[in-house]
Amino acid sequence: MIYSTVNLQAATSTENLQALEEVKDFRTTDLGRGGKERWTYHLLPEAALDAELHNMSNATSSRSVDSVTFQPCAAYANLNQDRYSIEEWELPGGVWQFTAIYDGHCGHDTVNYVHRRLPSMVRMSLQALLQSAPITSLKPELVSEALRNTVRHLDESIRSDLFDFLPYDHLTKMSDAQLNRRISQRYSEWDTISTRCTQGSTILLTLSDPLKKNVWILNLGDSMAVLGGRSLSGKWSAMIVNSMHNGNNPTECQRIQREHPSERACMTDNRVLGYLAPTRALGDTWLKVPSVYTRRAFAPHVQDWLTPLQVAEYASRILTPPYVSDLPEVFHYSLDVIPKQEIILILSSDGLQDLYDSHDVQMSDQEMADRWVRLIGRHTRPTKDADLQSNLALRLLRDAVGGNNIELVSRNLTLEMEDKWMDDVTILVQRFR
Q: Entry's SMART domains (predicted)?
């Protein structure tokens, strides 16, 4: 056997110094897991942090709303399942403003469907109300009811598509061969329907009238809305508007247990049927319809993360659906009677709250809300330059990813890891005064 010999010259001292220079700002972390595994991140200089965060979070500002949406993991950056809307509608009586955060789970199809359809549905519903009653005599409860009904109607449309394709009485009588033939003949249609039915999305939206005297906040899921105000004395206060619709909320767990009194598995490990964290959402139709749909129709076409054994186990727990609710909570505030010089509204997906778990001090939801409002309150004065500091949502995101802790911020932005190390984060900050 003939071997080839390769002669490699030893690196010079200059080259060694250059190599050391290239890695001097790299660090490793175990993410607090305590194991042997380490992941690398790049320690960025303070001057570069805000610019990097601005670019990675798609930070934007409109006349009265600042926004960011953030997922730093390179493998998931383009797979961020959060969506948001900021729209202004010219309607009878003036311009209404609509904002919303949609936090998708288990995929993109359902959250895209909600993002695409809900704003126009709300606008049509509001327009119908304004045509029947002038804005000056429009009762707030009518707007609340219209918002609630619109969200439920959208969820009903997902179920209707399923029942039109596979009526319950037909499904129970079909043989496996007949079912497979029906699905294969219209597979593209079925793929769209089944995907929407096995994915879901939460919703947190606001609607404000032309004079900014009234604001409505609708919540379905576990995103958070915080209303902040500055009093005449200059002190800021924060109020969490909505309750969390997830398994960590004892009230929600008790509600589901009351609705399914003889089913011990209806809430397991703080999850609906041991599977889903949000207790209210759009989609997740397989948890709202008879189990025959999951066992016979969804199981062969369910997403990759569930094995057939897992699907069978969850299906066996579906006895008296629905388990996930599509009934939102709607809150109305008359801003002209609130004695505050400045009023802001913060909307955030649940990923923002999760980020504070990496901080040294554990905070309650109210403590987080107080922190957010105080932080934003220090920067609410308008600036002439559209610089990084003028985006209030970006300010809040910077605090959440580490604030003044350069190492923590750098780690959260540059960690070299294939798995997501944080949930998707979306923040909208709306200024009313």
A: PP2Cc
**Over the stretch 148-194, which tens digit does the pLDDT of each residue have?**
999 999 999 999 999 999 999 999 999 999 999 999 999 999 999 99
Examine residue 157 and state whether it is found in any structural domain, yes or no: yes
- Residue 308: what pLDDT? 79
What does the alpha-carbon distance between residue 139 and residue 159 come to, in Å, rounded to a whole number?
Answer: 31
Domain membership flag for residue 261: no
293 in any annotated domain: no
The number of domains in the chain is 1
CB-based contact 201:109 (threshold 8 Å): no
Given the structure tokens 């995907």, which residue do they identify?
A: 195
The verdict on residue 252 lying in a domain is: no
Give pLDDT < 70 ranges for the chain: 1-24, 77, 301-305, 360, 381-389
Using the structure block, give the residue that is written with the tokens 């505050």.
340
Among 248, 222, 226, 260, smallest CA distance to 345 is for 226
Domain that holds residue 229: 39-165+199-245+280-288+324-431
| Cβ atoms 343, 367 nearer than 8 A | no
What CA–CA distances, in Å, run from 326 to 126, 158, 367, 395? 20, 12, 29, 33
Q: Can you read off the two tokens belonging to residue 57?
A: 């979070």
Helix (H, G, I), strand (E, B) or coil at 74: coil
Angle, helix 46-56 to helix 392-400, in steps of 10 degrees: 110
CATH number for the domain that contains residue 354: 3.60.40.10
DSSP annotation of 246? B
pTM of the model: 0.92
